[in-house]
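ESCALATION

Customer reports they have been waiting on this structure for their group meeting. Please prioritize. Original submission:
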Amino acid sequence: MTHYLDFEKPLAEIEGKAEELRAIARTNRETDVEEEARALDVKAATLLRDLYKSLTPWRKCQVARHPDRPHCRDYIGALFTEYTPLAGDRAFGEDEAVMGGLARFNDRPVMVIGHEKGHDTKSRLTHNFGMARPEGYRKAVRLMQMADRFGLPVVTLVDTPGAYPGKGAEERGQSEAIARATETCLSLGVPLVSVIIGEGGSGGAVAFASANRVAMLEHSVYSVISPEGCASILWKDAEKMREAAEALRLTAQDLIKLGVADRIIDEPLGGAHRDRAATIAAVGKAISAMLSELSAKDRAALIRDRRQKFLGLGAKGLAA
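Update from on-call: job pushed to the front of the queue and completed.
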């Protein structure tokens, strides 16, 4: 079943009518509706192109959150071989919102870490909708330090609304865990590349994406706060999320200009969820290209590269 976003309702009606006609034809072989159905297909394709030609920041947020987009487990399953999951932070417990482990990428040993949101109600609850607790960030630190010790590149896949804001998480040191993960990213002597595959929300995303190279899918978003949270703080009205999304400059296109992101990965027309295989393949090519860019750098050069990148954030946007 296709999930349509609010702004896609006209598209849903046209595609629904085409499917109804074909359903009638399947039950009554004598009914010839294929020509009419094809005309609706053409109309739907034109409308889809028009809708996605110039998405507003808020609509990009909606696409980034689409439940059918490929998730971390999908990318790991398709792009990495010999994946061996590693669990626990060796201090408190396991956090299902963060998955990671040893794997091979293009037959090269790597450490892959990412947020997992889940794909249905049960798995979303299990993975806490991709919102990590302190033990999730501490697990990520453990895996990154292991990769550093054995000289393995680190690949992170970011897709989170933000860190989990619960009382227990705060009691267990949520802010310290996020800060420690960010610090670990910045101090690694191995290549660290990150891809924002959906939402890059708040410090929960920064803790995984303080990388040498950051790529963003075309309709992904990356921001210090969600548009709804920003609107609640600034205007005391979460319904102002459209204005907040505009002001936050959270799209891949904005962040390339500011130097926060290093490359944009094109999505299929209509978003990653409309052609998951093509999206995953495009992400694989981007990861390969980013790792190649860093392959000749030694430990000191990698740390220096990362330091210069983050010290220079925003300079491109200010100069423009």
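Sent to customer with the following note: The radius of gyration is 21 Å.
Escalation resolved.
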